[in-house]
Design brief:
Blueprint (H helix, E strand, L loop, with lengths): L7 E5 L4 H11 L4 E6 L13 E4 L4 H10 L4 E5 L7 H4 L3 H10 L1 H4 L3 H14 L3 E3 L1 H4 L17 H19 L5 E5 L2 E5 L5 H11 L7 E4 L13 E2 L1 H9 L4 E5 L9 E2 L2 H11 L2 E5 L1 H7 L4
């Protein structure tokens, strides 16, 4: 008799990504159990899957729910706004694990914290997976699938953006920036991409529009918080007067960027006249050098 497949656990925040991962697991014949982060994931969207709701600081409840369902492999996905430590109201298990995470990670950037959380989950007997390990089509390959293509001036903005975004990522502060005609209009921090784009729209200059550049942080975990875009990003970029988006592609084992609802994202970009470039950042930089 064939053993029943082991359930996949999800700690789900807001947005469509956790739902896409759950759907991919179901298509593969794997049961899913989701712990929905209160205030972020909408329980009305999860009626097709077994789930429970837990507040962000109720770590003991979250892990207990997953263990009772026999979950070993676990995906963390979806938008969760990072609260202050004081407002988190950690339960007893959360306080114990926070001590293992350490003060440096708790008060550091998102990557430092998430990397520490992944380590602690492994110590607790779970096997964290990246969303892309369950739903391989999330990551975009190199190329420019839109009708619009970046011209020489846009490529110069992209090169400038790569340099800036790498410095931002090395500081564990954010994953992206907006560059127009060589000017850095906005840097991404805790507010997220859409809010950054709204700010960039207020600062845009006359002439050819700017470019959103998003990169994987240099020391980033491959399992959580990869840069992501989707139809909402396209609409926000168009509203900000941008002419394109450049993201890191998957190549040679490099994880690259998640593109949610890819067909819709590309069609939205075409409708708005934006280009979407999935790139190998090193190749783009080398092409801009002179012999």
């Amino acid at each position: 008799m064939t053993a029943a497949p082991q359930p996949l656990g999800l700690i789900a925040g807001g947005g469509v990504m956790p739902l896409r991962v759950a759907d991919a697991a179901r298509r593969a014949g794997r049961p899913v159990f989701a712990v929905l982060v209160e205030g972020f994931a909408d329980p009305r969207e999860w009626t097709a899957w077994p789930h429970e709701v837990a507040r962000l600081g109720a770590v003991g409840r979250m892990l207990g729910l997953l263990r009772r369902q026999g979950v070993r492999q676990l995906v963390l996905a979806g938008r969760v706004t990072r609260p202050s430590i004081l407002s988190l109201r950690l339960d007893g298990e959360g306080l114990r694990l926070a001590a293992k995470v350490g003060r440096r990670a708790l008060f550091g950037g998102d990557d430092a914290l998430l990397t520490a959380v992944i380590t602690v989950l492994r110590d607790e007997g779970f096997e964290p997976l990246g969303a892309q390990q369950v739903f391989a089509d999330l990551l975009i390959e190199a190329g420019c699938p839109t009708r619009a293509q970046p011209d020489a001036e846009a490529l110069e903005d992209i090169r400038r953006g790569i340099t800036i975004a790498r410095q931002l990522g090395a500081a564990d502060a954010g994953q992206g920036c907006v560059v127009q005609q060589g000017l850095v209009l906005a840097l991404e921090a805790i507010e997220g991409t859409d809010a950054m784009l709204a700010r960039a729209g207020e600062l845009r200059r006359d002439g050819p529009g700017g470019v959103l550049i998003k990169l994987v942080k240099p020391a980033q975990s491959k399992l959580v918080d990869l840069p992501a875009i989707g139809p909402d990003t396209i609409r926000a970029a168009a509203a900000a007067g941008l002419r394109g988006i450049a993201v890191e592609a998957r190549w040679n084992g490099h994880v690259g960027t998640i593109v949610l609802d890819r067909d819709t994202t590309i069609s939205e970009a075409n409708a708005a006249g934006l280009f979407l470039l999935a790139m190998d950042a090193e190749t783009i930089l080398k092409e801009g050098t002179t012999p």
